[in-house]
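Technical note accompanying the year-one report. For the benefit of new consortium partners, we illustrate the data format agreed upon in the data management plan: each record pairs a sequence with a structure-token string. No post-processing was applied to the example shown here.
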Amino acid sequence: MYGFKKSEVKNSFFTRVYEIVSRIPRGRVATYGQIAAMAGSPLAARAVGTAMQNTPEYLDIPCHRVVNKSGSMSPSYAFGGADKQREMLEGEGVVFKGNGHIDIERCIWIVDNY
């Protein structure tokens, strides 16, 4: 990969992802695909998920604000228990629909000039 070790490229991507996710405001969410595009790799939504799974705790990144495009919650193990992610998001004012998914249209983080 152009003279870089695979781990260096991955770490550089993860760093960009962490910087972006750290900017998601309370009460808003962003999708994995949205974060990937903002990080310059629009087809890397799964890699964003991997970055979220591997976020060092000391960074204090609001990983719970990153969701899939349907607005469904992460598996229960991701945040320490079933409904934990939803509790955190509701506590920040994120709106949910009757089907248990986030109301993406109302809560998506709109970024100008990123």
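Partners are asked to follow this layout when depositing records. Strands lie at 30-31, 66-67.
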